[in-house]
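Schema walk-through. Below, the input block comes first and the output block second. Nothing else is stored per chain. Lengths vary across the set, and this one has 139 residues.
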Amino acid sequence: MKKFFLSVQKGTFATNLAALTLRIGFGLLMIPNHGYVKLIEFNVRKDDFMNFMGLGGAFSLSLAIFAEFFCSILLVLGLFTRLATIPLLVTTLVIFSAHDWELLGRHELGTAFFAAYLAILFIGPGKFSLDYMFLKKRR
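--- output ---
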């Protein structure tokens, strides 16, 4: 398990470029309109936010901010990439749940995020990442 989460496969130039494109594209799409907005509007949203698994609105909002803002930044940088995708995948599953599992139509953007994060989890960060830069020294 440790080898899966803390390894970077060499791959081809095309697969490394695809990993970079997915990471930067979906990381940057999540940050401004989802994570950052929730972060700066925390005090306004905390009382009315979804009470996920009985954790309370403020804590649930904190978890969403952690995933959508901070994990997305890690994704863009390619740092702890596979670990950062897990909270993002969980967040998309919560989004599905909040929208009655409507995967297409008005809420298909959540489905696109889920598919992209799952692909990133499988292919890893690629060579154009901080993960590769730090882990190549250990080889």
